[in-house]
Structures are given as C-alpha cells and as structure tokens.
Amino acid sequence: METHRRSSTNSVRSHKPARPIALEDDSTKASDALPLPLYLTNAVFFTLFFSAVYFLLCRWREKIRSSTPLHVVTFSEIVAILASVASFIYLLGFFGIDFVQSLVLRPTADVWATEDDEVESEVLLRNEDARHVPCGQALDRSIRSLQPPAPIVTAEKVFDEMPVTVMTEEDEEIIRSVVRGMTPSYSLESKLGDCKRAAAIRREALQRITGKSLSGLPLDGFDYESILGQCCEMPIGYVQIPVGIAGPLLLNGREYSVPMATTEGCLVASTNRGCKAIHLSGGATSVLLRDGMTRAPVVRFGTAKRAADLKLYLEDPENFETLACVFNRSSRFARLQSIKCAIAGKNLYLRFSCFTGDAMGMNMVSKGVQNVLDFLQTDFPDMDVIGISGNFCSDKKPAAVNWIEGRGKSVVCEAIINGDVVRKVLKTSVESLVELNMLKNLTGSAMAGALGGFNAHASNIVTAVYIATGQDPAQNVESSHCITMMEAVNGGKDLHVSVTMPSIEVGTVGGGTQLASQSACLNLLGVKGASKESPGANSILLATIVAGAVLAGELSLMSALAAGQLVKSHMKYNRSSKDVSKVTS
Ligand code: ADP
C-alpha cells in the first residue's frame, strides 16, 4: 500500500507547477556530472588552502628570524603560493557566488524544508473560501527565482505565435463601417456568412473603437460556426482555461478520470488526493434519488379566489394526465412529473417538474410549460401570464425550494474510508474529521444561516467539472447545494462520509456540451451525447460523477483542516518575504 501511495503522491505533485523543480533538485543535481562528489572536492581544496597558508606562514617566520629576504623563495614555497592562490580562487568561486546570490534572492529556509503534504494542505486551506492569491504563490515565487531564467512569454508573444487572420481591402472597409456605426456589429455573421471572418472584423473594430489591445485573447483555433445561435453572440475570441484531471475516481465499481477546468491552483491536486483515499478504501457508491427539471411561471387573476381555483384544478389527479399529454408534446423526451403550486394573494406560481432525458432541460421544460399555459387559457381566460419564469423554479439563485424539493438530479454519494487511509493518505484521524465536520459543516453553517451550504467547498469541484463538460456554470449556485456528513463506523476505526446534493443540473446534449473541447471531456467520462441504451442515462451518470468528485474534494479539504495546517500555513504565508498585497492588487 505504501508503494502505491508513493506513486500516487507523485502524480499529485505533477499537478503543481512549482513542485517538479523542487523534485528535480532533490533527485538530480548539476554536480552529479562531476567525477568526484562535491563535498570531497571542497574538503580537498579547504585542506590544500589551509596547509599551504600554514606552510608559508611558518616559512616566513623562519625567514624573519634568520633575516633572509622574503622575496627569495624556494621551489616548495612557490608551489605553496600557487596552491594557496588556486584553492582560494576555487573557494571564493564556490562560496562567494552562493553568498552573493543569497543576499539578493533570500530564499526562505522553510520553503525548501517544507514537506509536500504540508504545502498541499496549506494551499487547500487558503483556497477554501477566498482565492485572492493563487495557492502557494509565496512558495512559487521564491522557488521560481532560483531557477535558470525561463523565456518570458508575454501576451503579445502568444499572439505573435498564432496564425494571423489576414484582412483584405473589403474587410478593412467593413471594419471602418462598423467603427462608424453604419454596420451593426451583431449583423456581421448574417451579412458575411462566415463566422470566423465576422469575429475577426468585430474584434478589429472593437480594438479601434476602444483603443485597447486584445492581443492576449486568441481568435484563431476556434470553430465559430459551432456557437452560432446557440452558445455565444458577437464573439471576438475565446478565453483559455486549463483542464486538469483528477482520479481515477472509483464510483459504483467503475473508474472515471474527472476533467476539471480551473485556474485555482491545487484544486485538482486536492480532488485527486480525495479520489486516492476513496480508491484505496474500495470506492464510493452513488445513488440517484430524483430526476426532474423545473420551471415555474407566475400567473395573475382578478381575485385570490380565482387563483385558488386554478391551484385546485392543477392539483386534482384527474386533470394531471391531460396536462401531462399537453406538456409532453414539447419533446419526445419530456415527461411531466408534477405541478406544485404556491399562492401569493391573486398570484399563482406553478412549479412544473419534468424528466428531460439527457438534456439539462431548461428549454424543454419551458416549451412544455408554454404548451400547458396555452391550453389552460381556454378554461381560465381571465388568467394573465406575467412571466414564464416566476422565480419559484428556481434557476441560478439560492432558494430553499431547490434545497428541499430538489431540481435537476438529486444524488447521494457515500464511501467508507479505511482508518489507515485516513491516517496515511489524508494525514489525520477519523475522530478529528468527524468533530470538524460537526462543528464546521453542520453547526458552523447553521450559525451562518446557510442555505444548502453545509459543506466545505462543493462549489469548487462542481464549477470546475461544469466548465470542463460544457454545463451552464451559473447553475453552480443550486448545483453546489450539498450537505456533507461524517461518522465514525466499524467501532470508530473507519470513516463513513457522504455528500447529499439535491439539485445537480447537468446535461450531455444541448447547450455547450456539443462544443469540441467540452465534448472531448464528456467523452473521457463516457457520457458524450445522448445515451443510446436509455435516454437520460448519460446525464444521470454525469450527475453521479459530479457528486463523487465532490465527495473526494470534501474529504481532502476537510482533512487538511483537521490536520491543523491552518496556523502553520498562515505562519509560513505571513513570513514570506514577498509583499502579498502587491501580488493580489
Ligand atoms: P436544454 O433543454 O437542456 O436547454 P436543448 O433543448 O438545447 O437542451 O437540447 C435538447 C435537445 O436535444 C432537444 O431538441 C432534444 O430533442 C434533443 N435530444 C436528443 N437526444 C436527447 C436525449 N437523449 N435526451 C434529451 N434530449 C435529447
């Protein structure tokens, strides 16, 4: 188990940009190329220098006593002088340069003494709530300063290396027309029939209008046709987000490599450590509790009585079948599940819940709701539809209705982490984790009046996986609702850990999921596109993977906290010679 642990630890390290440099220094040094070990060479020159100086001093004392002129030297004295000068030059070169470098660079001793796990824990803690500074920045900067100078790649440099889109005379004319306001920027795609060219012209026009350079924002290397009318309007380029990989996550007996798009250093490494703990303990189990996307229009009547009439009508089981038929016409995948009503005076909120197959389902459910509202208008002509979304849905806002009733996929995921794994991989104890979970994730969150936030950092993992797999990242609000539970089991030896997430909103078709990069990440998980076996199977599997990754992330961060790294990390962080305020600003 120890061997396994070590190799995995190395894979964790490989995610950290600064670590490989430290590792290389540990294993291979430039001096390894020399025939003699460095300490032996130093010892030889030290001895030579002091012996030669001692010999010369003795000789000179004798010469003074015997009144012999000092400049009259014997062969042995010449050899001693040469030896002392040569060894002095060697020693000056060796220690002098090191001394001067240390005065200029001042590497903190504890940077080099820092243990890997401490660094990892330290950065996880800093990343928990606010990541104003990339993790381990103080460390990175010190370490970086001791590396051989690397070529500096500026934004301009990156731009220079990209294929340049050539502008023709005609393009130039269109740019001028956009700058003058004669051609609307949004109409370029339809006018030119070439999305890439439209983006290039819009971008150039924007640079001229604003006088600001966009050289760091790439234009080439993206399929602009693929986002037309679906993902993004008026494109001028694309933002690059690195994708890291955590895993393998052993979930329901299968291994998954989880792609995470993030710019938060150490988030992937943290999740990876959690995956390792889960894997070594036999894996996690994840169960889907409920699957239904919701949309809640708000309608108004002349009186509260009329609003109540509609409520009773909708809640009558005899009417449900008819309404479901009307609703389900919106898509061959849509299946109406329930309509939950809430009244506020004359206003009625109708929360439709529907199965949406492999689609996240917002479009599908909205179409179905529109069908039902049109149908109801016959029996309730006095119904005034105020909005197809009345916020009782509730989309992209923290709301108790999602936390209690669920939205999208409701999933519970659990694992029993072996006590040895808790000690060796997570560097803490079962009791510490259980106590911390109770005081932080349960009591602490209750004290803060949390709504669905009974966890350490579920949203970190949810958002990174969402961006990588083309989900709507704004839905991380409710998708990150999560209660993390920890309990000592098997006589207090092992840890039972679970995450319960009532509103994971994911899809594997529609939206950003069909774009090349996002689609590749879905493919990696084996959930790309519509499931051939059973509609909805891919999106359900993706939701369970999200919950599994959250479980891993919770385990790792909670362990870092329980291991008491907080004070240590702050001590180190505050003692750094770098001015962090300058870095953050
Ligand atoms: P959303 O409703 O999540 O916004 P879209 O409406 O953009 O998603 O995408 C869903 C589309 O994908 C629908 O037109 C639907 O007919 C189609 N589709 C194909 N296969 C499936 C599937 N297995 N599950 C759900 N939708 C599917």
Automatic annotation (TrEMBL):
It is a multi-pass membrane protein. Gene3D superfamilies: 3-hydroxy-3-methylglutaryl-coenzyme A Reductase, Chain A, domain 2, HMGR, N-terminal domain, Hydroxymethylglutaryl-CoA reductase, class I/II, NAD/NADP-binding domain. It catalyses: (R)-mevalonate + 2 NADP(+) + CoA = (3S)-3-hydroxy-3-methylglutaryl-CoA + 2 NADPH + 2 H(+). InterPro entries: HMG_CoA_Rdtase (IPR002202), HMG_CoA_Rdtase_cat_sf (IPR023074), HMG_CoA_Rdtase_CS (IPR023076), HMG_CoA_Rdtase_eu_arc (IPR004554), HMG_CoA_Rdtase_N (IPR023282), HMG_CoA_Rdtase_NAD(P)-bd_sf (IPR009023), HMG_CoA_Rdtase_sub-bd_dom_sf (IPR009029). GO terms for cellular component: endoplasmic reticulum membrane; peroxisomal membrane. Its EC number is 1.1.1.34. Pathway: Metabolic intermediate biosynthesis; (R)-mevalonate biosynthesis; (R)-mevalonate from acetyl-CoA: step 3/3. This is 3-hydroxy-3-methylglutaryl coenzyme A reductase. It comes from Gossypium aridum.
